Predict the 3D structure of the following.
Amino acid sequence: MSVLAIDVYYRPNDAKAVGVIFNWEDAKPTETVVEYIKGVGDYVPGEFYKRELPCIQHIFEVVNLNTIDAIIIDGHMYVDNAVVLG
């Protein structure tokens, strides 16, 4: 079963979206996708679609969703923020 887990890290006006593709049986991920998004809006409670959804869509654009069996959004994964948003 191929799974895509996605989470987003925010800075004041930018975001780093990370997608990790893995199989339940494997010890290591198959692929990691990182996208940087500029001009991210402010957080508004109850309006997930305005801030996080556009970042998630960036991941969807570069992953072949035909090979994915399940998608986990905003699961408990660690995004290494040592990389400077560019």
Q: What stands out?
A: The chain has one helix and four strands. Residues 2-73 form one domain. The CA atoms of residues 1 and 24 lie 6 Å apart.
